[in-house]
Amino acid sequence: MSSRFRVAGLFAGIGGIEVGLRRAFGEKLETTLLCESWEPARQVLAAQFPESDLHPDVATLRDLPSGLDLVAAGFPCTDLSQAGRTAGIRGVQSGLVAHLFEIMQLQNKTVGRAPWLLIENVPNMLALDKGEAMAYLVKELGQLGYRWAYRVVDSRFTGVPQRRRRVLLLASKTEDPRPVLFSDDTAGLDEEQLHQDAFGFYWTEGRTGLGWARDATPTFKGGSSVGIPSPPAIWLPTEQAGRKIVVPCVEDGEALQGFERGWTLPADLGRRNGPRWKLVGNAVTTGVAEWLGQSIKAPGDFDLPSVKWERKGAWPTAAWGDGTDVWKVEASEFPRLDPYTHLTELLSLDKAQPLSWRASSGFWSRLRVSNLGRHPGFREDVAEHVPLAPVPDRKTK
Where do the TM regions start and end (predicted)? Predict the structure, then answer.
């Protein structure tokens, strides 16, 4: 490896991959190019990565810097996620990944040295349309001559109390991605060691799914089933009435993704429903990228069991391929177990706001007609909270 590790980030968001890689490589990391179309995200990138070239649109990007070591692409999950439109890999937003392969094809023709390629997205793409999205990705990688491997990981392995599952797909023409992704493995998180003084859930759900998480929040999302980019709520059963159902502040959201608090402040336009929560919800957990960077620097041995897999239905949660063959790998979603930060230790409880009357009453009305939320005491505390909830957003005619 050269004295510098040079990275280009496409669909860069607020730079979660690049922040994690910077922690792994230190001063050796050089983020040469960031490409992002959404203006609030560009404001964050411009402030936090002033040394990097910033390009506004992957569709018009034709040239990548020379001498790159890695190209990262956390392409939009809008058409792949359960919270999104589920239009599939050919959808308007998720289909933008096609530009990545056009760029890499051009890179292969004009630059002798091919970099690592990292793709990040939601696990639903392994199952949606019988795994058509993953089939498309590996086909394109095969045409580029890349060997690839992928693994679903849960962000909690980095110690943050957010249950966030993501696919990491790593590919290379010259290197073997398997020791990078599969040399670390554990039996997983011991749920019995988690505290029971805080439970995260989606208040924007009710009839279909709560996203229930013990001593953690569920996955932060850029949107929800009711179209609101909002933080999950947190049930604090030991707090006083009126403070048992709260929402974290956006700075807590940044910390739950591994960023410094205040990371998205450059995009704060002073509006009540500004873009910061959506920026956080769309980000990559920095600790996940840090682990990946450390593994690229010093890969271990690949010795996990793997068996040849014939495509049928959803793809496995971990696999590798070379040419047309696919091999399923027996790997957990917890490559390692960093010291866990319990949710109440991370939360700024003095800044957490009680879930509003409008939000809590709407959630309660949906909850009552579902079979969800049966944890002892939860329904009773939601019902108690509604009449005590703050009402500044309650509109009267």
Answer: none
CB 61 within 8 A of CB 12: no
- Indicate if 35 belongs to the active site: no
Nearest to 131 by CA among 341, 363, 309: 309
Indicate which residue of 77, 122, 141, 347 is catalytic.
Answer: 77
Name the architecture of domain 5-188+284-329.
3-Layer(aba) Sandwich (3.40)
CB neighbours of 3 closer than 8 A, spacing ≥ 6?
28
- Whether 85 shows a pLDDT value over 50: the answer reads no
- Helix (H) or strand (E) run with residue 118 in it: strand 116-121
Give 156-214 pLDDT, tens digit per residue.
999 999 999 999 999 999 999 999 999 999 999 999 999 999 999 999 876 778 899 99
Kindly report the number of other CB atoms within 10 A of residue 325's CB atom.
10
Query: In the chain, where are the structural domains located?
Result: 5-188+284-329, 191-281+342-388
